[in-house]
């Protein structure tokens, strides 16, 4: 197979970039190793920055018809004291809320919407297993399909295959580890009809948890110290569920649905970024270029922003030929500042809130001064909302649209 662009990975970055390049009339293929997008406990938060992109693409009306929940005010309980984290209604944007939607619905929507572009092909059950090179230049990938091995020749290969990127590994790109003090246990708890609570995060001495109201269930993230999963597991599932029920009594009836450790998924948190995002003929974006902490739920939206910037910078060049490595590196130059600033803010939260919360002991927790200020001064809640909802220097769609698309 020969294409202008081969995208490895059908996550948010890969599917959005595939859609944008297909819209521009560029011959592009997206490789997704799984047979479908159905993977539980992936990033399900669609922030105002992504909703704006969907609007700019003319997709927002159909998108918001999909089942979702909306969040505007983010509140937490810190050592028994209620704090206001952010108020997205203060954002001067068209869609001032976070939409909670299963990621598979988002990805399926992009795939279905992209079917009208003859130049876009999405290949499911197709796993990239190696890069193809001509000297120092990456010229495509070798992929495993249900019908056997397939060599795909491409002027540009884009790695969108996540924080454990095989493409990045094969390219020998160096990772700068920033580190995170925690891992996360994801699980679902049942939710009774008319059962509602506005709390988003709970912090007690030695414990921290985030809950998302998903309509007919609670999606929960229980934060544990980095590398302590085996110790938590050794205490037994009942002990974990007792801790959770004490922190969030509203969850207690629904915890009956957590029957075994199979119902609890470990997310190993990593915060890192590549020092170099490119090789000749290759570009990494999204989690393949920078793994984000779950703090703020911004990972999906950073990946979407990368995809928009990539299309803005490279689509017109791909129409006519092969982008140079310097042209590919323009994506890193554009996106490095937002990535660094976002990770810096996540590290500040990790060091000042998460670390304190995870320290063992029974001493009462004091609400950090900055959280007291945000709670007391309403306009500050708009600043935190901007960081969470829009991020640093959000991207807008400027990539070309081919005739007929």
Give the helix/strand layout.
Layout: E1 2-8, H1 12-23, E2 28-31, E3 45-46, H2 48-56, H3 60-64, E4 69-71, E5 73-78, E6 81-87, E7 98-100, H4 103-114, E8 120-123, E9 127-134, E10 137-145, E11 148-159, H5 166-171, E12 175-177, E13 182-190, E14 199-204, E15 207-213, E16 217-225, H6 229-235, H7 237-247, E17 265-267, E18 272-274, E19 278-279, E20 282-284, E21 290-291, H8 299-320, H9 325-358, H10 369-376, H11 378-389
**Count of domain modules:** 2
Distance between the termini: 24 Å
Q: Structural class, from helix and strand content?
A: alpha+beta
Can you identify the CATH class of the largest domain? Alpha Beta
Q: On the 0-100 scale, what is the average pLDDT?
A: 91
**CATH fold group of the largest domain:** FAD/NAD(P)-binding domain
Q: What is the number of strand segments?
A: 21
Strand content: 25-35%
CATH architecture of the largest domain: 3-Layer(bba) Sandwich
Classified in CATH, the superfamily of the largest domain is FAD/NAD(P)-binding domain
Reported for the largest beta sheet, the result is: 8 strands, mixed
Helix tally equals 11
Question: What can you see in these coordinates?
Answer:
The chain has 2 domains: 2-178 and 270-389, FAD/NAD(P)-binding domain (3-Layer(bba) Sandwich), CATH 3.50.50.60; 182-267. The chain contains 11 helices and 21 strands. It has helices spanning 12-23, 48-56, 60-64, 103-114, 166-171, 229-235, 237-247, 299-320, 325-358, 369-376, 378-389; strands spanning 2-8, 28-31, 45-46, 69-71, 73-78, 81-87, 98-100, 120-123, 127-134, 137-145, 148-159, 175-177, 182-190, 199-204, 207-213, 217-225, 265-267, 272-274, 278-279, 282-284, 290-291. Strand 10 and strand 11 form a beta hairpin. Helix 1 runs parallel beside helix 4, helix 1 packs parallel to helix 8 (299-320) and helix 10 (369-376) packs across helix 11. The mean pLDDT is 91.
